[in-house]
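Readers of this paper often ask what the protein records in our data store actually look like. An entry from our holdings is shown next, in its original layout:
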Amino acid sequence: MNLGFDIDGVLYPWHEKVWRDMIFREHISSSFDKFWDKEWLEMKENNRTLFMNYVNDPLMYSSSPPYYTVDYLLDVWKKDGHKIWYITQRPDHLDYVTKAWIKRWRFPYQENLIRVKESKRRAIVENEIDLFVEDAIRHAEDLDGFTKVILVKRPYNKEIQNKFTTVNNITEVPQYINGKE
């Protein structure tokens, strides 16, 4: 089976990192859920510079380990004969940081990193991805009908959680890969 994974919000805790940094630098007092459910949209619209600083800061993408057990699960899936792809929409200038982070954590199939500018659909179709784990609304909806989409539940994707198979985190994905669901 060809497995695909988004990086930020699925394998890497980018959203948690930004939220913690916002608490420290901007002195926000919101919970993670409240911040990502509503406040980040306001920040994105009202303070575009601050938002883009987070999006473009290499430290936001490289200084934390992957979510718990990600590296272990990826190794298990490789040993079980699955091919793994990492498909992300990170900006071009973060290519080196992304490759270095994947190498640092010894992810299997490091050569299967694909960065896209807009839609992930072409990469999914060309690489015959059977199952893709995503957290972003627009990507999940765009991929629907082209691959099996597993949606990682996040405060910012509540509105589509009833449309997809959902998991709380990557540790719940094996049941869908092993055909139990």
Notes: The domain at 2-12+66-177 is CATH 3.40.50.1000 (Rossmann fold). The mean pLDDT is 92. The two ends are 15 Å apart (CA to CA).
